[in-house]
Amino acid sequence: MTLRVVVADDQALVRTGFRMIIDARDDLEVAGEAADGREAVRLTRELAPDVVLMDVRMPVVDGIEATRQIVRSGSPARVLVLTTWDVDAHVVDALRAGASGFLLKDIRPGELVDAIRVTARGDALLAPTVLGRILDRFLRTTPDPAPPPSLRELSGREREVLTLIGQALSNAEIAGHLRLSEATVKNHVSAVLRKLGVRDRVQAVVAAYDHGLVQPRRP
């Protein structure tokens, strides 16, 4: 199956570079290009891509707001945010808007291709250079006073799994920690996402921090 990608960036040279990298792969193709956030939203609606490569800083509508509109529309497209700015606020805003991943633009071509594939299958993706810092300084430090009904629906084991997802552990790492098979962990992860009503693991991380299941480490 060929994964279809919309590239959204206000610089034509950047879009051309991404197109060359993507179209060189047999399993990927650029379905369309957008020069601003509004056009990215429109093309996502019209072309139904699997992944949107979304620049943060664009005219008319920025990448964060465009991501928010795409997610709220119910589009199944995954948004992979790219920026030249290694700034925590952008990461948090992107995650809050519903992005499935965050990478810096200096990523190598092969890593970009892998990132598109990972994002398309619904796995969380954050640049390694920002992941640890974001998990330590994430969102809020005080949990909601009353857990939402969706969180109360989780079983004890599912809450354990969600807590470990919030610590950025992979399924294999969670399996080792809980002494379960990876297949069992995968089933628990799927149940957690379904009960919380979130799109992917990165939104589960947001929920884990929001509701106090994971606390930022103090310096």
Structure summary:
Helix content is 51%, strand content 14%. The protein is of the alpha/beta class and 219 residues long.
Description of the structure:
This protein is α/β, with parallel strands linked by helices and 219 residues long. It has two domains: 3-135, Rossmann fold (3-Layer(aba) Sandwich); 149-210, Arc Repressor Mutant, subunit A (Orthogonal Bundle). The protein is 51% helix and 14% strand. It has helices at 12-23, 37-47, 63-72, 88-97, 109-120, 128-136, 149-152, 156-166, 171-178, 182-196, 201-210, and strands at residues 3-8, 28-34, 51-55, 78-83, 101-104, 125-126. The protein has a six-stranded parallel beta sheet with strand order 2-1-3-4-5-6, sandwiched between helices. Helix 4 (88-97) links the parallel strand 4 (78-83) and strand 5. Helix 2 packs parallel to helix 3 and helix 8 (156-166) crosses helix 11 (201-210).
